[in-house]
Each structure stands twice: as structure tokens, then as C-alpha cells.
Fold:
Amino acid sequence: MVCFHGSVWKSCVLLMLLLVLPCSGQPKLSGLPGCSTSSIDRGFASTSKREVAWAAWCAGRNEWEPGRWSQPLRRAMSEAIASPEQSENKHLMPILIDAVFRSHTAVPSAEALPLYDAYPDVAVALLIDRSDGSHSTPENSKELLQLLLRIETERNRPRWLAVASLLAGSVDFKRHLIDAVQFEYSVHVVDDGDYRPTMESGRPVLLGGIIGRAPAWAGWPSAPTYWLTDSPRTGATLLLADPFISNLYLWTSNEPYASTFPSAEWKRHQQDIVRHLYSHAFCAVCATGPRSFGYPNILGGQAEIRWRSPQQVEQLFIRTAENYVSECRRFMNALDEGLWSVEQVKSRVTIIVSDRRSNRTVPLPNPSGVVHIADY
Structure:
């Protein structure tokens, strides 16, 4: 390049500086500017955790060579999670996780499952976000079922729904659901001639979580935390589409949160079990969705009784209980796991009665059995 004196010379110097200096906002790896292919390769090959972090950060933002660094990312993540207590690994893992999601790197279930202790939502999301179908193999269905049992002790609905979707073809899973299922039905007693539409309150946002975001170290990139939820949020990505039971979403946040805590919607767990059993038993190949004509109440029904007299209401309680138990029995017998007696089914049925009369001077009759009067 030839430079001249005066203003032309000054412009030439400025142009030379722009050609030499790295672009603003791009990291350096071992003194190399930017996120070039060679810089990323050098970073992953480095023994410095900080340089591995920058390599992962760059790989996650590399849109022109997707999948190129899948193996280094997976290897770095496996090595870091093997010693999660190390301080540098605590800072490295969120950056690797972020890069894995950004680069759409497929992680085999054998590598995703060990992440659960420290990053449960991430582990479950990686199990769902598969492209080779390895999550549904008979070889790891036992591991997935054990994970599901653990999630049940944690009472986390989004994770349970995600893992349950992976076990849809497992006979052991179906039998586990049969062992756990309880049928719940609601009956509202109202004034005769009174009409009160029943409205459910809005569902809260459900949060799972990974260990909170570590504060950025000097010279290290930062990364968000990843969450599972069954409520759509701005910027969330649809992870699992299942309108019959619940859609699941993955979204990111910069705020720390606990790795495990009870889900606000775990009270819906028995309804989730019934719907999974229904889908598993009757709709494995349904193209148009579940068929509910045979079992309209177990999928989420309720009854309303208009008060006229204690005797009239008691007879309706008894008739409602008999009809509901009969429906539940037909359902259980259709699961191909043996025939159920009326008494066996009754042990799984609870009918909750709520008194919504304006005048409660005369108490509701209590026929006992499967019918229970709600306390106020």
C-alpha cells in the first residue's frame, strides 16, 4: 500500500488500523482475533478452561458452519460435568450448554443423563431435542423410567411430562401409571335455578431450572440459564408439541434460580397420568387426536347438582358415583392389564363435592364411600 502526505496520509493510516485491529465485541483466543475457524479449533485444543469457554462461545454463534464443533462441544461438556465441583467448570458448563443449544448439537442420552444432578432442565431438554431417536430405545427405557421416578419425588411437572413423552411405547411405563393412577371427579351443588359458570384460575408459569447463572469472570464470556415450562413465554422455543396433555417450552433467563423445587402445577399430576394412559392405550396411532366419546368424564369432567332436598341430592350423589366408577372400570379393563372389579376401582376413585348454595343451613348429605364433602 502506498501512502502520501497530508490528509491522504492520515486516511491511509486509519485504513491500516481498521484492517489490523479486531472487530469490537469479538473475543481473543490465545492472542488471535475474532471467532475464526482456526481460533475456535485452537480454543478447544487448549488446556485453558477460559479458552475452551471462548471457543464454545464462538462455536455457538457460528451460523455458517452448523455442527462443525459438535464433537468438541460434547467432549468438553462431558469432561466438565465429570468434576462439577471445580470452580472453573462451574463457569464453563453454562457456556457449553448455551453453545450446545445454539448450535443445535445432538447429545446422546448417555451423555445427557449425567447432567441431571446439576442441570436437570438441560438434561431433560437435551433428551427431547434429539434427531436420531436414541431416547426411545429399549436399552435406555429403564434408565428413563428411573429418572421419571426421581422426578416424581421432586414433584416437577414440566420434567415429568417431558420424560413421560419419551416412554410412550414402554410397557413398564404403562404399568407404572396403572399402579399410580387415581381418578378424581368434581360435583358442585348449587341453588335450584341458579347458574354459576365454573371458571378455572389462570395457570401460573411453571419453572424447572438449572443451577443459577454464575457471575461472569473477568475475561470469560457470559451465558444464560435454561428453563423448562409448560406455559408459553415471549422468546420461548417450542420443545414438545402435545396439545392433548401439554406443550413444553424452553426459554432462557439471566436470573439465577434453584435447580429443583416442587412445580406449582403438580396438583394436576393425576390428570396427567390419566391422559397419558388414555393416549398410550387408545391413541398411539390416532391421526386426529384422542377419542373421548367412550370416557367423557375421566378426561376432565364435572357435574352440577341443583339443590331441592337432602334425599334428592343423596340419590344423585349415589347415581353419579356409580356411573363414574363404571366408566373408570371400563377404562381400566381396556388397558389389557387384567380385569378390574368394582371394589378395586373404587379404591382409586375420589369424588369431591363442593357446596355452592347461597343458604347452607341444611347440610349436604354424606353417603360416604367414594363421595367426599369438601371442607370450607
Notes: The longest helix spans residues 310-333.
